[in-house]
Amino acid sequence: MSKVNIRKSLFLSLFVLMTESTSYASAPDSGELLHRENCQRCHQAEVYTRPDRVVKNFPQLKQRVKQCELMNDLMWFEEEVDAVSSYLNRNFYLF
Ligand code: HEC
Q: Measuring from each residue's beta carbon to the nearest atom of ligand 1, which residues come in under 6 Å?
């Protein structure tokens, strides 16, 4: 490969990386996706809005998300627990 070709392919892969991260940023919120794919097997959103809901503040919400996540063996990173907690807070709990 000539020097020019190497530079060209470096430029191209950089371009691909950049466009990929752009499309990731404009994709639906990761918390929403994670929730849609993993959390609606046992309960629908009603549990988050029912009058006698268990969760009373944001730390409790995070703790509960973690419990349900562990119960499901999802092996989420802290970032994923955070993303789903924020998603639930923004859309249902509003703490
Ligand atoms: C294996 C079944 C199951 C799955 C899957 C599950 N949960 Fe739960 N979840 C429960 C049960 C059972 C409760 C308690 C419901 C009750 O108290 O009536 C609950 C309650 C909750 C609550 C508290 C609701 C309240 O009263 O305020 C939150 C928040 C929650 N789940 C989040 C999640 C999230 C996020 C996921 C996905 C990671 C998830 N759950 C997946 C079983 C599950």
A: 35, 38-39, 41-43, 47-48, 53-55, 61, 64-65, 68-69, 71-72, 74, 84, 88
23 pLDDT higher than 50: no
**Per-residue pLDDT tens digits for 78-90:** 999 999 999 999 9
Q: Is the dihedral of CA 74, 79, 85, 90 positive or negative?
A: negative
Identity (one letter) of the amino acid at 92? F
Give the distance (Å) from ligand 1 centre to CA of residue 68: 5
Residue with tokens 């009058």: 51
